[in-house]
Predict the structure.
Amino acid sequence: MSDIFFNLSVRSVRLNFLRSILASIGIVIGVVAISTMGMLGTNMQLQVKDELASSANTIVITADAVRMGPPGMGTSSSTSSSASGITKTQLNKIRTAVGSNGSVIPLYSTNTQFTSGNVPARGMIYGMDPDDVTKFLKVGNGTNIASINEALVGYTLAESLNVGVGDKITISSASSGPPSNSSSSASRATIKIVGIIDPRGTVADSVTTDNGIVVSKEWYTAQYGGKDHYTQVNVIAGDTDKITEIEDAIDAKLNTDAKTPAVRISDASSQLDTISSTLETLTMFILAIGGISLLVAAVSIFNVMMMSVNERVQEIGILLSIGTETGEVRKMFVYEALILGILGAGIGGVMSLVIGYSVVSAMMGTTAFFFLPASLIYIPEGMLVGMVVCVISGLYPAWRASNMDPIDALRSD
Amino acid sequence: MTDTPLISLVDVTKTYHLESGDFTALDHVSLDILENDFVAIMGPSGSGKSTMMNQLGILDVPTTGTLSISGRNVATMTNQERTHLRRDAIGYIFQKFYLIPLLSAYENVEYPLILKYKKRDTTGRASALLDAVGIGKEMGAHRPNQLSGGQQQRVAIARALVNDPKILLCDEPTGNLDRKTGFQIMDILCGLHKEGKTVILVTHDPKIAEYAHRTIRLEDGRIAEPS
């Protein structure tokens, strides 16, 4: 750079290299702190979002809680359960409302007990059209249900019962004795496992298959009754941007009486918003903690810049007396602060990459989201903040230098 | 030489407000310095020589009275205008040389050119001036602390001349030099006077003052004996 004032600043930093490096360490620590904390918070957000993303495009429609009871409870609570749930008429209205904007998946569900050998376990059992299974569930091992006596088992349940593809599992029918077409098998029915469902983790569509089992709707209704009275209907939107539009259409078709709505409509976005908002607050908080180290660094840079000005009083006097403008003297010291900032931010940026990666890996167990732009952006952002902090710290010393009286400055030794 | 004063002091007083009370360093001084003059200002310590130099070098402004350079009253100028006038019209030569320690000898000479033209010297003027004062290219690459006192003062003279100022303001230019080197520096200044520069020399050394065409003696802030 041909700018003589920048050259003077570079030479001044070189002349006091050790002091400059020590002052920059504060900036290094500050940049590493805010970059790492920012990346950690963002990686946490991204992970939760990713887990919820699998059901983010899903709308869940249940019979209204006030009148019908919560989902999953209706069919097993009483013999009058045949009157609860989403009816076939309502389902058709939902299909009409959704049209070509998504897939409509009606399903039955209840809580029950499973047994394999002598090992018991409790979990959810879902009944649905086998064709709908692959629309939102992934069969990792084995195949999808092909006939009425076949079932898919959740990953966690399969592990706890120690069962696999080809094994059989005994399922208790509802304890209250749901209708069944076979009195001999009314309380216990055995079904063959044809596939294991991959883990789903946190989902917002109320279908928690990890510790559950999926059977065909025919088998389910044969065991538990309640045909054409679905526990819930899931709508998988083709485009997440159309979720509100679809929800409004369903609401308009089904909840014609505003005072006593027939169905309750919910989706993952509100859940996602709440979690995202919480994590963003948490990220901001830990960023603020990182920011404190930058405040300390700012004091350190300010101190070094004041030392630089005080040591160069006579030089400032020379510059001013031979015709250097006050703005040019100011610029020279701001450059010096900026150089300290670039030095600290540069080292801090590289260290942020290494330390950030290590921290995210250690705290979260995965670095799958680390190299995404939303995560890495914290490094240049941290560097920029570090440099801005340095420049701000150098403003007063620069102003003080430029406002010196050249006569007094020349006299100083 | 013309009869119009290049520098004119009319009834100039400079008073410093100190905690111990007001101190008048220059007391109603009137003086004209013509173009291509060679003036020596002499006087004992505390006589007001330095204050006079600061006024003539427009590093300071009078408390009362008028100081004009080329007909312009410096008190009515803005700070920036005074800075530009110092840069363009006045060359400073100090007793302690006052070179910029972070710059090489060559860069010290080039610096005022960069201030004026906002770019590095491509005309070779800085090198030519260094040559003229006896500082070669190799020596020009040295930092001030690597040069002798005489060499530093030569560099300071080259720096003072680089923007071709009308006035050379020399504050004890031989004060930190041995006698022989001092006379060499004075020979350079005499040569510059012959080339048309107006030289103002502050000194307490009568031998050095003899180089000037006239001497102004200051005592207690007043001109004692104009010659």
